[in-house]
Hints:
- It comes from Pseudomonas syringae pv. japonica str. M301072.
- This is Phospholipase D/transphosphatidylase.
- This protein is α/β, with parallel strands linked by helices.
- The chain has a domain at 44-114.
- Helix content is 37%, strand content 17%.
- It contains 5 helices and 3 strands, in the order H-E-H-E-H-H-E-H.
- A 3-stranded parallel sheet has the order 1-2-3.
- Helix 2 (60-73) links the parallel strand 1 and strand 2.
- The relative contact order is 0.16.
Amino acid sequence: MRASRLAIPGFELVHTVPVGSDLQTPDLRAPGEVWRELFDGARQRIDIEQFYVADHAGSVMDKVLESLTAAGQRGVRIRFLLEEKGLKLSDPQTLERLRAIPNLTLRVLPYAKLT
């Protein structure tokens, strides 16, 4: 896999696309891989925002949540934001799994009301 042409020291661009989408970015690393590296190396704080959350056993998100849980168990403070509309699209079991992570604060923001 070739590296992204966008090179800013200390930053790496990743993004997710809906399952079944034909959007491809072969010059970017897979977000799950990058997130796990970040979460596994976190020492003090993780700030993350997602439009919605959904996983299933063995999925990429399942592995990401394992790394996030391990970070919380190490004492890393985690702030997790969800968009209000995305909350309705989120999997209830995944939300419960998030809420059970030690040191994680989950907040829902109504982005439409903030603009």
